[in-house]
TrEMBL record:
<keyword id="KW-0408">Iron</keyword>
<protein>
    <submittedName>
        <fullName>Preprotein translocase</fullName>
    </submittedName>
</protein>
<dbReference type="InterPro" id="IPR001486">
    <property type="entry name" value="Hemoglobin_trunc"/>
</dbReference>
<dbReference type="GO" id="GO:0019825">
    <property type="term" value="F:oxygen binding"/>
</dbReference>
<keyword id="KW-0813">Transport</keyword>
<keyword id="KW-0349">Heme</keyword>
<dbReference type="GO" id="GO:0046872">
    <property type="term" value="F:metal ion binding"/>
</dbReference>
<dbReference type="InterPro" id="IPR009050">
    <property type="entry name" value="Globin-like_sf"/>
</dbReference>
<dbReference type="InterPro" id="IPR012292">
    <property type="entry name" value="Globin/Proto"/>
</dbReference>
<keyword id="KW-0479">Metal-binding</keyword>
<dbReference type="GO" id="GO:0020037">
    <property type="term" value="F:heme binding"/>
</dbReference>
<dbReference type="Pfam" id="PF01152">
    <property type="entry name" value="Bac_globin"/>
</dbReference>
Length: 147
């Protein structure tokens, strides 16, 4: 696929084309990854109830998440949201992020070629660590008394 291919809608078409060629990823694979991943999340005993308490209309969330992964994995610039505030205040600790990553790694292996799976997993792990830090930083702290 060349960078002039009209199917690639990206703010950096050449870079996006290069990543697609290197990883075997494309919009269809990312769409399948996102949909299958959230199918698992929604029925997961640990994560399901946390999402169910906040998301009633899954259509817009899934669309946003496909845009997010298109931006993160293919550098298309399609996502314009703010992930940190969406997670600050959630009742989660590292065990929840680890469970999220277990399901994500599993789904990536099912839906992407090996190079593509490694590409999205590496990014998911990095973002999970930084979201976890933001969530922990925002938790109210009890300062131990020195008296
Ligand atoms: C403990 C694990 C996680 C939980 C429980 C969780 C939960 C949620 C929930 C409930 C929302 C919807 C918030 C709302 O619309 O009010 C959301 C949004 C989102 N999540 Fe997560 N999430 C987790 C981990 C992650 C990770 C690891 C990533 C990225 C790799 C991620 C990326 C996003 C993005 C991009 C949004 C959309 C933010 C926006 O633009 O509004 N999440 N998440």
């Amino acid at each position: 696929m060349s960078s002039a291919d009209p199917q690639i809608i990206s703010v950096r078409p050449q870079m996006t084309a290069e990543i697609m060629a290197r990883t075997g990823l494309d919009e269809d694979k990312l769409t399948e990854l996102v949909h299958r991943f959230y199918d698992k999340v929604r029925t997961d005993a640990v994560l399901g109830p946390i999402f169910a308490a906040r998301i009633t209309d899954w259509g817009p969330h899934l669309e946003r998440m496909v845009d997010f992964w298109s931006s993160v994995a293919l550098m298309t610039g399609r996502y314009h949201g703010a992930p940190v505030p969406a997670h600050v205040g959630l009742p989660v600790d590292w065990d929840h992020f680890e469970r999220w990553l277990v399901l994500f790694r599993e789904t990536a292996a099912e839906t992407c070629p090996p190079e593509g799976a490694a590409h999205v997993i590496e990014r998911a792990e990095r973002i999970a660590r930084s979201l976890h830090m933001a969530v922990e930083d925002a938790k109210p702290r009890t300062i131990p008394s020195l008296l």
